[in-house]
Write a structure and sequence with these properties.
heterodimer, A: 186 residues, mainly alpha, Cytochrome Bc1 Complex, Chain D, domain 2, 2 domains, 8 helices, 0% strand, B: 590 residues, mainly beta, Methanol Dehydrogenase, Chain A, four-stranded antiparallel beta sheet, 34% strand, disordered N terminus
Amino acid sequence: MKISRIYLAALIAVSCMVATLISISGAAFSQSATPADPTDAGKHVFQRANCMGCHKWHGNGGGGYGGDALSLRQTQLTREQIVETVSCGRPGTGMPFFVRGSYDATKCYDMLRKDAGDQMPPEANVFLRPSEIEAVADYVIAHIKGKGEPTYDECTAFFGNGSRVCNVYKTEAKPAEAEQAKKAAQ
Amino acid sequence: MKRNARILRRANLFATAVAIAGLVGTIPALAADEVTQDRLLNADKEAGNWLLHHKNYSAHRFSSLHEINRDTVKNLKVAWTMHLGGVEGGGIWTHGGLEGTPIVENGFMYVTDGWGSVYKIDAHGGKGTLLWKMDPKTDHDWAGAVACCGVDNRGVALWGDLVVSHTLDGRLIATNKETGQVAWQRQVADPDKGEVITGAPLIVKDMAITGVAGAEYGIRGWIAATDLKTQKEVWRTYTIPGKGEPGHETWKDDKNAAATGGGSTWVTGSYDPATDTIIWGVGNPGPDWDNAYRPGDNLYTDSSLALDATTGKIKWHYQHTPNDPYDYDSVAENVLVDVPGKNGPQKLALEADRNGFAYAIDRTTGKFVWGLPFVKKVTWTKGIDPESGKPVEYDPKKPVQTYAVTPNRTDKTTDICPGNMGGKNWPPTAYNPDLKLWYIPVIESCNRITPEAMTPDKIKPREFFTGGGPSQPFKITGSVTAIDVTTGKIAGKAEMPYPNLGGILATPDLVFSGQPSGEVLALDGKTLQKLWEFNTGGGVNAPPMTFTVDGKQYVAILVGLGGAWDKWFIDSTPELKKMQPGSMLYVFSL
């Protein structure tokens, strides 16, 4: 027992040192490169919680086999309302609740499970912590809410360049527009 | 080095086997390795092998092997298992699943996972040894974002010394059977248009026949043939006729609905060598639930299509649900059977449609012979006409059909039975030619459709174009339903708590199937009484098959619930929410 405790303590000490080193080097790196987007954590939550499963990567949602997921691009919801919707889901729809204990330990929209009845929203596949929900709300507000049609740059910002998923947004109209712009300029 | 030694050792064994076979003279010397058209035509003569996706060209999924039978099946137990990969998500999917049928040749098994990796497994010696894995590096997000109904791949085909397979991102890939190295690949479908591939290829006369998925994304469906020797396309037949082609007049709108008319072909078809005809099922029209967008019968959606195998030309079609407002695909396999009829032998094509009716069509003329509901509850029509097989409400003069119950632009919601997932979806049927019984894996279902009026401006590349969506307020169960093909009547129904999402294998006196709650089952072929059951602990979403190695019979099945069910339809079977994603091969023996 003693030995293993000592061993554990040593292991923790080493891990802490490693963690410190990583955070130092991370800080050094971010100083020399472009500052990271503060909403990257929220983008990660958007992916991990599979928001894109219904709302799509671009947030436009739309009809389909899963029914009609609302457009986050056209949403009027405030940051607080987005946090509430993610935490509690939307009663009577497929939008799940992402906080453990919603409708049981804590009321949602002033309802417990028995009050919600058949309007009870589904439970999400993953539960999120409050900080994660705030992060995803910040991401939606910074990158999705109020935006027009999805663009190639937005798509590659979401997926990176490793997939052909964004090719479809490379509009052929672009060269023509450039041509027209040139003509207009002449 | 080790691998080379093993290959050499096997080559020696093989040489010895060929020498012995040559001496005994019972097995053709070629039989051991090269897969030829002749071997595929005679697939049933190689009783211990499973060479074609549906076992034979007639899609019977019947094996004559009988070591495992009504008396011995109680002793069936797990022989070996193997964990596979491909469970990761991509696009709109959180995980992949397994829907494939293993192919077995001379004791070597070829299976795929949902992302299209191919695994070659040596099944000799009562155990499974993975020889190689070919990972096609499928573009997960490109394909997964436009796969309507899951990260799925239903298996490989064999030709020459190659393993031929598809990927979700639209490729046809030929892999060297010995080494697992990719010999060549060809892009057949285009995910930029919303096209993906989930079905296994069908090999006919040195061609690989490919079907496409994507009718929920505004595609124009097709069936394509690739010459395996030149790797060039031989023909591509569109399932939605173009301007000037017969059938184009069944798209009566003024907004070119045919261009995005759907008609996908994502289930492997069958082949009749006597007439050199490929028979292939065609899926739903798009948009799925707004049939007012596309007045007319919308050929060749919801049809069985007979094609000249050499040219791809359409010989005949039979449409089941004209101007479909339900998403009642007819992608199902056509089972080719010859049975005695009143006026001599009948050459039939059997199809169990998503609309809940089973159809027998004369496969030389494409004419309706008989049909009946195989589900317990049908509400969308009062029945089918005994002469034509069309729904009794069908009026060819009406541009937009109104059946007994029809989702439409006026009513907010409409409840339909069967539900849009169908009375039977892709999971394959099986046919016992001795008992003349045809076994259907049934989804006993209803669901609710909320239609949405579509306009051309709603068409966007790679976005759903469905004209509404389904929801699941009703409990859904399942059954195995047997039809006596000599009478066209139901011979039995084994009801089960969950929908049948895997399909069926028939042997001389048994029927094998599974449940998405984990059970693999053996039923008595005549009475459908349950004789054996094993719980795999994972959702069964793939068909069982059987083979022999070293003279011993095995039953194999892939287990891993994925596909459409656990994303889109799970609310109708809430108990299945606890089933975990998985990727596992089970092999049973006595």
